[in-house]
Design a protein that fits this description.
single chain, 369 residues, alpha+beta, Pdz3 Domain, four-stranded antiparallel sheet, two-stranded antiparallel ribbon, 11 helices
Length: 369
């Protein structure tokens, strides 16, 4: 079932990306010939009006075919079709149509990140922090996350106990540490000495409130009393606006990190080894789906953001290439030749092909153990 959900999730990202192109193309009066999930040969399809809707056999993305996507296609078009051809529209319309695709992917990433932050899902929020450690989405919580063996807490506290009071006073993480540290040994404070009085811990355990008594020991290395357990973490609280700001910060940090890694991939074997193709991305998404909704939705948002980033590279046939040449035409006041476009784009295509082949090779190695 997790694989079905994974494939549906990735297919949804592709469909929504292409739907962005399709919707804006129709809105500005362009003629859309085909809307396809995956690439030909065609498996199934139907026609409605001037547009054919189909599913292809090669699962490597999707496309929207707009009449007149290159200057060469304008030759031989009948006058009515030519009026609605892509290359006969002003540059601003072309740019709007092209940016709509990655724009939808950016919106999906933002909405999923924002929703996870606003919901307080620990799985989602912790995944966001791992994707972008520069932004902290977790805060320490007075919940027992680890217990050291042969320390005072061993056999007294249990994992997931929530400490609500120390010596009768309500506490946070910081105040709990201070309250425990306030106890003293009977004589000189030496490493390993036991406190003269026990710490009274009030904890919530499995829906019940329990009072526990434990004698802390002095740590000479840390210069304070310890019980021997570690606090856990909780999702930070966000309102609608702070969640939006943090989601945008996450997106910016992930984008900068991704672009940096792509640049380093051409000079660092270590970075190249970390790259994945669509195969590895699908496997990682499936693992996230298996782990739960919070993990899965954040990873799908990350994949959506990555699709937007890659599609905006300024090389044909990627979306960024179409935007670049529409801007160039606007600045020059006349069209750039198709030969010049492809000469420039060929360098980028070779570099991207190198990354795709490298990522596929890495994935085959990982899957093969």
């Amino acid at each position: 079932m997790s694989w079905v959900l994974t494939i549906l999730g990735i297919a949804a990202l592709v469909i929504l990306h292409e739907a962005g192109h399709f919707t804006v193309a129709k809105a500005v009066g362009m003629r859309v010939e085909r809307f396809s999930l995956f690439f030909p040969p065609k498996l199934v399809g139907f026609r409605r009006g001037e547009t054919e809707y189909m599913i292809g056999a090669i699962p490597a993305g999707g496309f929207v075919k707009i009449t007149g996507m290159s200057p060469q296609e304008l030759e031989g078009l009948d006058p009515e079709a030519a009026k609605h051809a892509y290359y006969n529209q002003p540059p601003w319309k072309r740019i709007a149509v092209i940016l709509a695709g990655p724009g939808v992917n950016l919106l999906i990433a933002f909405v999923l990140f924002w929703a996870m932050l606003l919901s307080g899902s620990f799985a989602g929020v912790s995944t966001l922090e791992r994707l972008n450690p520069s932004i902290h989405t977790l805060a320490p919580a007075p919940t027992v996350a680890a217990i050291e063996r042969r320390e005072p807490a061993d056999g007294v506290l249990r994992l997931r106990d929530r400490i609500v009071a120390v010596d009768g006073r309500p506490v946070s993480v910081d105040s709990a540490i201070k309250a425990i540290g306030a106890h003293r040994c009977a004589g000189v404070q030496r490493g390993g000495c036991r406190a003269a009085t026990p710490v009274q811990l009030t904890v919530r355990r499995a829906g019940r409130t329990v009072t526990l008594s434990v004698y802390p020991r002095y740590s000479a290395a840390l210069h304070r009393m310890l019980i021997g357990f570690g606090f856990g973490a909780a999702a930070m609280h966000y309102n609608v606006f702070s969640a939006a700001g943090t989601a945008l910060g996450e997106m910016w940090g992930i984008t900068a990190h991704t672009l940096t890694n792509i640049g380093h991939a051409f000079t660092s074997a270590k970075v190249r080894h970390e790259f994945s193709s669509i195969v590895g991305i699908t496997v990682a998404t499936q693992e996230a789906v298996t782990a739960g909704a919070g993990y899965a939705l954040v990873i799908i948002g990350f994949v959506s953001l990555a699709l937007a980033i890659v599609n905006l590279f300024p090389f044909l046939p990627l979306d960024g290439g179409h935007v670049l040449w529409a801007l160039a035409e606007k600045v020059r006041g006349r069209r750039v030749s198709l030969a010049a476009m492809w000469r420039f784009s060929s360098v980028g295509i070779v570099l991207l092909a190198f990354l795709v082949i490298n990522g596929l090779s890495n994935d085959i190695g990982r899957l093969g153990g």
